């Protein structure tokens, strides 16, 4: 192991892995299943805006579709093209406008005015409730060990 002095040069020689380098199953049903998983993963990654995972899953799906005949897995290819469109639209002005529209809530359609807010001076004067005290059961301190004298059962008050 090194102390990290060569990390810069090592990282320069490494490339980001794409899904195309991973193994492709030999049998056709396994290829179709792997393609379905890759499309599902890409869809989830695009939903969560995890672009690196989406790129990996899309490149894996592309390698799998290239390994399959054109007339096989038509439904998966359609799903894959839909995910590709969503992935490609991630930095477009339309996507940014949609993000801004979500950030600013729409005004009310009716002419009603919102109810007046209560004054905050009264709520600021109220103190927050203290945290509830946990019941620790019957626990006794060894007062003799702490230097407070002896402990007798007769002096200790009963809690039950």
UniProtKB/TrEMBL annotation:
Residues 109-120 have a biased composition (Basic residues). Residues 1-29, 82-160 are annotated as: Disordered. It comes from the Bacteria. This is Uncharacterized protein. It comes from Streptomyces caelestis.
């Amino acid at each position: 192991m090194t102390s990290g002095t060569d990390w810069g040069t090592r990282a320069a020689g490494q490339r980001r892995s794409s899904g195309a380098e991973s193994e492709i199953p030999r049998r056709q049903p396994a290829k179709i299943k792997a393609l379905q998983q890759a499309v599902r993963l890409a869809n989830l990654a695009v939903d969560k805006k995890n672009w690196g995972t989406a790129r990996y899953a899309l490149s894996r799906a592309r390698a799998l579709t290239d390994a399959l005949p054109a007339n096989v897995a038509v439904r998966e290819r359609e799903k894959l093209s839909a995910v590709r469109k969503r992935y490609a639209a991630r930095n477009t002005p339309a996507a940014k406008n949609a993000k801004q529209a979500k950030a600013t809530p729409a005004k009310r359609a009716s002419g009603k005015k919102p109810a007046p807010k209560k004054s905050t001076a009264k709520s600021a004067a109220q103190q927050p409730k203290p945290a509830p005290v946990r019941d620790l059961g019957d626990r006794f301190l060894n007062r003799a060990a702490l230097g407070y004298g002896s402990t007798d059962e007769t002096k200790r008050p009963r809690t039950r």
